[in-house]
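Lab notebook, bench 4. The sequencing result for the construct came back, and we need a structural model before the next group meeting so we can plan mutations. Quick request posted to the team channel:

Model the 3D structure of this chain.
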Amino acid sequence: MWMNNRKLRPENIPENLTSQIPLKIQRRGGPAAGYTIPENGIRKLQIGGEQAIRATAWYSDRGMKMVELLAWISTEHDIAHFYAIMPADTNGYTTTRLRSDGDERSGSLM
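Done. Here's the predicted structure in token form:
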């Protein structure tokens, strides 16, 4: 988890959240490094009544298929970034799906 205090006008929150996706891709080395976040893996939602964006990234680490679950929650005063990195199973899916309501269910992330 990462959190930062800042001042942001409420009408700028959606654009700021959307900008987090390409910034994360760039920090992880981008498509050239095999790190991708497909469009169908991005979802805007509310978490705890605050605007948020959730994404699923795919990449390989030393030949092992990996998945990174990402979420950013933003207010006009703070932004919080949560992430979890885990191996993908042999079909390219994880065995646990983390939902925004905190419930865990088995299934695909795609």
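Residues 13-27 form the longest helix (15 residues).
Will bring this to the meeting.
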